[in-house]
# Entry
Amino acid sequence: AQSVAQPEDQVNVAEGNPLTVKCTYSVSGNPYLFWYVQYPNRGLQFLLKYITGDNLVKGSYGFEAEFNKSQTSFHLKKPSALVSDSALYFCAVSLNTGFQKLVFGTGTRLLVSP
Amino acid sequence: DAGVIQSPRHEVTEMGQEVTLRCKPISGHNSLFWYRQTMMRGLELLIYFNNNVPIDDSGMPEDRFSAKMPNASFSTLKIQPSEPRDSAVYFCASSLAGLVNEQFFGPGTRLTVL
# Structure
């Protein structure tokens, strides 16, 4: 079965430090991978996606993600965290069903302290 | 662009009552998704439509739940009769059809069933 795993329920980082939110996937065929962010009392917002090509994908708000096929990972990164980055982050994989159907991870809460 | 519009934003009802949630997707998008988010189960896909046709409703919890999409600009999710365990935040999302296209989420409807 195709799935994604986010092994950390919460990640704590100090403002200005680099951050990493982890995601691993299990799919058959080529994976299409996504990161979304959810701020309190809001819907999910798209951050970035990997389709093909360069393994380092750049997205919104200074975030980037590195696709690693051998480790089946798609970790979200940012060189310097901001307090305003504190939110819930979801990794997702698109199922190869012919129609777009995303399977989401359980989410990782990022807490950036001043 | 107004984004995905959901109404109502909050709904409080009593057990046994009928609840109808509404969604207006982004104009031009031909895929629509209904999700439910709870602390216990995270983000669950309930049903999705492509070109107004339900493609996969395997996530609908039981017969008390039904969804319709009478035209490209409107969808409803109905719960009848409602139960306390239906309390959750319900999100509608839309996208262009295709495995690589990101979904755009509405602000959600917070449903409380007493």
User: Anything to note?
Assistant: Chain B has a mean pLDDT of 94. Chain B has no helices and eleven strands. The interface with chain A takes residues 4, 31, 42-43, 45, 48, 50, 55-56, 91, 93, 95, 97-108 of chain B (CB under 8 Å). The CA atoms of residues 31 and 50 of chain B lie 5 Å apart.
